[in-house]
Amino acid sequence: MQQIFLSTDANQIFKVTLGGQSITLLMRYQTVSDSWFISIYNTVDNTPYVINRRLTPNYLVFGNILTDFVGDILSGSVSDPDQNIGRNDFNSVFGLYYLTESEASDYMELQNSS
């Protein structure tokens, strides 16, 4: 599992390599819903993997969505897993993590067994 460090800006665009994949992350905070949304694109050809997916604590971004992206992204709480992800919560209360395919599969098994 690899943590992705974010700023507290309400709109963020950055490029990162995860699991050998060069991707562009677009993070947006919407005050109306008090929620963060994520879009993930292939940096090479700008093909979207996912667009405007709401980040829900402790749920995989892709989960069962069929995509060419290898692995998954998880927003995890370091303190209260039931708390919504607030505007300034990343890197302090919540982290954004990249999981390899096997880590994502293990995480899904754990979630399904509880």
β-strand number: 7
Taking all Cα atoms into account, the compactness measure Rg is 13 Å
How many DSSP H or I helices? Answer: 1
Averaged pLDDT, please?
86
* Unreliable spans: none
- Shape descriptor: globular
Number of domains: 1
* SSE string: EEEEEEEH
**Structure classification:** mainly beta
Helix-residue proportion: 10-25%
Question: If you had to describe this structure to a student in words, what would you say it looks like?
Answer:
It is a single chain. The protein has 114 residues and is mainly beta. It has 1 helix and 7 strands. The strands form 2 sheets. Strands 2-3-4-5 form a 4-stranded antiparallel β-sheet, with no helix packed on it. The mean pLDDT is 86. The longest helix is centred in the last third of the chain and has 13 residues. 20% of the residues are buried. Helix content is 11%, strand content 42%. The chain is globular. The chain has one domain.
Summary of the model, kept short:
This protein is 11% helix and 42% strand. The protein is built from one helix and seven strands.
Can you give keywords for this protein?
single chain, 114 residues, mainly beta, four-stranded antiparallel β-sheet, three-stranded antiparallel β-sheet, 1 helix, 7 strands, globular
